Amino acid sequence: MKLFLEQRKEKEIEVIVRYHEMNSDVKRLVQKIESCNHTVVGSDNGRQYKISIYDIYYIESVDKKTFIYTRDQVFRSEKKLYHFVEELKEYDFVQVSKSCILNLDVLEYIKSLYNSRMEATLINGEKITISRTYLPIIKEALSKEVEQQ
């Protein structure tokens, strides 16, 4: 794959993808590009913010409240976790417990814990527990990531 970058006077970014045959690599690339504009709404201190899905590390539900975690901020959302599960499943987000979905792009590594559970360490050092119910889902998602690289 060749990559060409060209600075132009137009403010809008234009991306042209040339390919011989539509395959999973091309589809994944197009999906990543299209998702750059995908945002969710979260609030902090009474203010509403548009949050790019690529800035989200994980989304968690605690005491029937939903929180969106980025590298260094936490936002509150009115949406229920299951809405985010559906909305973000095509963008490398996977459910890792009953109350948490994780952005695989920020996953550093996974290690085993007791009781067949695992712990995910994120690129910012935060740790998330993966419950055994969701282990097959995350293993499948990770194997797809490896296959596509």
From TrEMBL:
Q: Which UniProt keywords apply?
A: DNA-binding
Report the leader peptide range: none
InterPro entries in the record = LytR-like, LytTR_DNA-bd_dom
Residue ranges of every copy of the HTH LytTR-type domain listed in the record: 40-144
GO molecular function annotations of the record: DNA binding; phosphorelay response regulator activity
- Tell me the superkingdom of the source: Bacteria
Task: Kindly name one Pfam family recorded for this protein.
Answer: LytTR
Membrane among the record's keywords? no
- What's the protein name? LytTR family transcriptional regulator DNA-binding domain-containing protein
Give the source species: Variimorphobacter saccharofermentans
Taxonomic placement = Bacteria, Bacillati, Bacillota, Clostridia, Lachnospirales
